[in-house]
Amino acid sequence: MVEGMFILILIIPFALTIYISFLRWRANRPFEQAYLSGLRNYESVIADSGFWDSLGRTFYFAGAAVVFELIIGFFLALMVHQITRGRRFYITILLIPMMVVPVVAGYNFSMIYLDSGPLNQILAPGLNLFDINPRIRWLSNPIAAQWAIILADIWQWTSLTFLIFLSGFSALPPQLINAARVMGASRRQTFFWVELPLLKPAIVIAVVIRSMEALKMFDPVVLLTFGGPGTSTQTVAYYLWEQVWQFNKYSFGAAASIMLLIIFSVLIFFGIYLIGRQGKAIERGEA
Amino acid sequence: MSTDAKQALQIANRRRWRRTVVRHSILIGWGLIIMFPIFWMIQTSFKDAHEWVTWPPHWVPQDPTLKNYEQIFTFDVQQSGVAREATEQPFNIWGAVADSLIICTTSALIALFMGAFLAYGISRFNVGGGKFRHSVLIIRMIPPIVIAIPLLMYYAIMVPLASETVLGFRLSLFDTQFGMSLLYITITLPFVIWMMLSFIDEVPYTLEHAARIMGAGRLYTLRRVVLPLVASGMVVTFLFVFILNWAEFLLSLTLTHPDVSTLPVLLNKFQSASEGRLYGPQAAIGTVITIPVVVLGVLIQKHLIKGFSFGTIRK
Amino acid sequence: MAQIGLMEVVKKFGDFVAVNGVSLDVHDGEFLILVGPSGCGKTTTLNMISGLESPTSGEIIIGNRVVNDIEPGERGLGMVFQDLALFPHMTVFENIAFGLRVKKTLEPDIDRQVRAAAEAMHILPLLDKRPAQCSGGESQRVALARTIVNDPSVFLMDEPLSSLDAKLRVDMRTELKALHERLNATFVYVTHDQAEAMTMADRIVVMNGGLVEQIGGPLDIYDKPASRFVAGFFGTPTMNFLQGEIVAANGALTFQCEHIEHFLAENTPDSLAGKQVILGVRSEHVVVNSGGQQGQVKLIEPLGDVSLVFFESGGQEQLVAKVAPELRFSSGDQLTFGFQAAKCHLFDFDSGTRLN
Question: Considering the domain B87-307, what is its CATH architecture?
Fold first, then answer.
């Protein structure tokens, strides 16, 4: 029965999309007037620099964000793992950003990035030293706007990598570490030779999961920058949204989303393969 | 102890103390960074229009006001003191609250029951084969935009067309609570199954065997033996899915207008690229959206931790 | 009259054959134990008797009727599981009362019967507690009380003592045996522990690889094992095994292997001459300081009432002998040994079945 539901909701629309992607159709013409036009839509998608630019940008954003999230999350988890008191407290606090509705997070940062916002206020003393006007309009500068989005993502999702790493740390068998210590390994050696390899599954999982999610970046873009200035912060999700909902290029959007699906499927399968390998390694007792 | 040893111990203790201080300060520092945007939003929600974009910005409203909250909570649009007619949207929040609540709750409930049922089947009878367990999550990995476009076509065009020819009247799923709920159920089902699976797996099947030997039927066993033991799991799953639905933005943005609006969509309506934003009401809405979810999230926190362990915790 | 019967019962899981044609009878009121190594099919067999699994082919008979299609709850059985399967969210009282509640017994009757069962198992003070608050031994008794209260004619037990520590296990063994006497019911018990089987059973069913190797009383199985497997499974330390040939010489049969030549008992069938066999002899039937074989001591384990002497003959097989504690040996000593011929067991080299 559930399969039935899946089919109803997902598969049929897909079939439909594939059909539409072969049509030539725009919103100002009712559906009935659309006609088949072969691979033309796909050609226009492939030729469309906007599509590829936004795709590349999406990877760039995701990559930058995930790298920072991994490093900071790892570091935070290490800290929390090592302190003895107040763990519950820190964990509670550190987990909150994950629960904030992403839209709201986007909005929050839109306030903070205002040229008259607190960010500039905090940076003001430093900026004044260099004779820079502290009222920086972050969102008007392409590169700054990009990093604004990336920072928003980092703010929110570091909690997730933190969580994964923390449970990884908690799962480290103390006997292994003790054994290393007894054999004379220093803190450093123990960390790099024993603990880090044991954390490999957690690291892989964190990377894969976070990357997949980061590639979908949408909410902050809509709330913060509207893809601007110009097109510098358009992620591929935003770009497609714009094409279909603002410009009503339906068949273009259909073709583009099919292409996107194919691209993502490759990534998804790769990701699953990686995670599955870690799972098997754990079961075999290797990791 | 010799004085040398005593000194060494003191130095070691001091070093340890320093390290602890460093760790705590880092954590507190990051904690402040975390809380800052939320704090900012809450305090903005109490600011009147003239305080929104001052320089330097006010960290605490100098003229705190409840006007933003009044504005969004009133039924009567005319009453709003700060009218920015450019956006032409209804200001009050009740509609969106209703929509969000209805959609999120019903989707979560239905998904919960369907998913729990399925999860039981997978756990006890291996429905769907061995792979099914892990492949359920694959659905979640697809970017929603990829399904938003087809769904738009489907909801707004196909279904009306089909229903018109078959049933004789035009039925559309676009911009309906029903359509959204259906969609939400489908995309959260994998999560429900995954979470309920882990809860059901924790109930040893020998309990059901024992009940069966003593003459209990399947339904009786489910009701008296299994259900009490997974009840808390069901609550956690429900809350988790509810939070997921509550925060969902892309799909509700794309598939509803203008009748149905979930809260995130409403937030978005208070701004546009050309007219700027109404920061105050946005902050108020943001606060309303966020607070319940954060509270719920903290409550189910322990289970989230367990769930995200992904087997990195080895028994 | 057998109360439970299994006729050519087979159970397959896909291609895997867990139970490969088992037939046995359980006598009314006896304590029958299914014993064997992990994976031998004993638990599956028990599950088929209880109805939790259905046989792929063959019949299960309880009383006089074929019960293959009858629900577990209607077979009049009680079962105790390895993990005890106590409902954690119910009190001890409610656990015990479960079966009665299912049958819609009236409350006052439930109360009476539960208390009676609890008293019989000495757990009256625990009635309001949760299973998590009970110790291992107490939980055992709760599980038993829960089974008793439903007044079954047959008790099935799946390794119930394996989760207990050693001392508790020994105590519970005695209690179970006493319970069996008191109730005069039929017990079918599964375990992998041969010591448990020996101490508690009226009859033992030895299983291996889905098949029954031997059925008999404990001492029968010990003294006359039907196969090399059974011989090696029972007895501590494990029986000594030597691989060799039977040679006829001067009208008598001897067993020969590399450095050992030993005469065999007179009643050994002549047809065995020339066969490849495995000779089995228990450590208590190895005689030292007499007999014609030479050996060198490797290790001594003094147990107090006896000593175990591990020795090698001709650098080949390592053998164990149980000797009186007064005999002191040291590692490296030379000794002479022999076997009590009447107590030697001969098994076919290929099939492992008993030959004498």
Answer: Orthogonal Bundle (1.10)
